[in-house]
Specification:
Order of helices and strands: HHHHHHHHHHHHHHHHHH
Number of helices: 18
Shape: globular
Radius of gyration: 22 Å
Distance between the termini: 16 Å
Number of domains: 1
Number of strands: 0
Helix content: 55-70%
Oligomer: single chain
Strand content: under 5%
């Protein structure tokens, strides 16, 4: 395999940047809080160009791409199922559009992975700088142009994203990239950059008042350092640390249950998170989602951005504010099962790389767990043009390809008439800088 240039990361940067751009939208019925860019000429031009660029990169690296596709059979089955859902959707054209985005996610993730295989640290740079552009533009817009940059009903910042929850989502992704970059780049100048981006990110996150993103950010700040410590510890020390964390968590929960049990009540927890007892109307929406799931529990209504499920109703939402219910509505039990296979496979591979001390093991594990938590009250799992869906597919793609890294690098060295063979992925970090 030949080394792929850094231009393979351009489509990824374009997708992240466009996910946070919402000022030009005239279609306010579509939700922005899953990071979805609005429909329009801008989407076709930017995302279409990113997907085409990625396709060219993949075609120029056909050998490794074919090797990767053979390992990505769960995602290929999901793509086939999404396309098949056009046969029972009320809007098959919308299914085809969304299917195109899911294929685009795979292309962008594959192209980026071909470069990241040899330069894994650069994922933090690309994501952090892309998010920084959005945040740096959003803060002054929110402060100086409140009619445009804030939600007039709540006063929450939304900046150039057009939605407060989108700004929170981008801030969460930025914090992940900055924290990951802090560990991946020990150089002083790089850490100063990440610290600066993290500072404006925290300001944007607080201004957005997105409680889901704030909670997921707190999880990242607590979990990623722990994962990094686990990755660098010996096997015996790792076992002691995991045992200690488990018993500390159990002790904390028992203490709360014994002395302040009211904190564990749903209504109290919601109040502490800045929400009402209905989780800002989510309970009504979840009840509606369950009704729709029971009508078509196996195949769902189709991957048409809920157009079929919402047809004939007065609900104006574009998502179910729960990624798992949202998937059940769109894809039924089959769709959810296929999605969970991919998520669980990616988590397993990330944990494997954590044990083998690969530098991206801890960051990717923390990111995917944060996305899993984020989808409790938001919906971003396998949604068309969702930046979190793209990041999940990217993590899964990188981990699948890295699992074949010894064979990939052996092929590259044989082509260069060098017969040395890496013994195990754990011995590769020096080759994969």
């Amino acid at each position: 395999m030949q080394r792929v240039g850094a231009t393979a990361l351009v489509p990824l940067a374009a997708c992240v940047l466009f996910a946070g751009y919402g000022l030009s939208s005239a279609d306010q019925a579509l939700p922005a809080n899953t990071g979805e860019a609005r429909l329009g000429v801008e989407r076709v031009a930017v995302l279409g160009s990113a997907y085409l660029w990625s396709l060219i990169v993949c075609l120029r690296n056909r050998s490794i791409w074919m090797r990767l596709l053979r390992r990505q059979w769960p995602y290929l089955i999901l793509l086939a199922y999404i396309l098949a859902s056009a046969s029972w959707s009320f809007l098959p054209r919308k299914v085809l559009i969304d299917w195109g985005h899911f294929v685009g996610h795979a292309l962008v993730a594959s192209a980026a992975t071909f470069h990241l295989l040899h330069h894994p640290r650069r994922i933090a740079v690309v994501v952090a700088m892309s998010c920084a552009v959005i945040i740096a533009a959003s803060i002054p817009v929110s402060i100086t142009m409140p009619s445009l940059g804030t939600d007039l009903m709540t006063g929450r910042w939304q900046g150039v994203t057009g939605n407060s929850n989108t700004l929170g989502l981008i801030s969460l992704l930025s914090l992940w990239a900055c924290l990951s970059g802090w560990y991946l780049y020990p150089e002083l100048r790089m850490r100063v950059m990440y610290l600066g981006i993290a500072t404006i990110t925290v300001a944007a996150l607080v201004g957005s008042r997105s409680m889901t993103s704030i909670g997921a950010s707190a999880f990242l700040l607590l979990s990623l350092p722990v994962f990094q410590r686990l990755a660098s510890a010996s096997v015996s020390a790792r076992r002691w640390m995991i045992s200690g964390l488990f018993f500390a968590t159990v002790f904390a929960l028992l203490t709360l249950l014994a002395f302040v049990p009211e904190l564990l009540r749903p209504e109290t927890a919601a109040s502490n998170l800045g929400r009402d007892a209905t989780l800002t109307g989510r309970q009504e929406l979840w009840a509606f989602a369950i009704e729709k799931i029971l009508e078509k529990p196996v195949t769902g209504w189709g991957f048409d951005s809920l157009a079929s499920a919402l047809a004939g109703t007065d609900f104006a939402y574009g998502q179910m504010h729960n990624g798992y219910l949202d998937l059940l509505v769109r894809g039924g039990a089959i769709g959810l099962a296929l999605a969970l296979v991919i998520v669980l496979r990616a988590l397993y591979l990330a944990a494997t790389q954590l044990r083998s001390r690969h530098r991206l093991g801890a960051p990717l594990l923390a990111l995917m767990l944060a996305i899993v938590l984020h989808n409790i009250t938001e919906a971003s799992l396998f949604r068309a043009a969702s930046v979190y869906s793209l990041m999940l597919v990217l993590s899964y793609t990188f981990l699948e390809l890295y699992a074949t890294a010894p064979a990939v690098l052996r092929s590259r060295t044989e082509n260069a008439s060098r017969r040395t063979r890496p013994a195990h992925p754990a011995t590769l970090p020096n080759l994969l800088r």
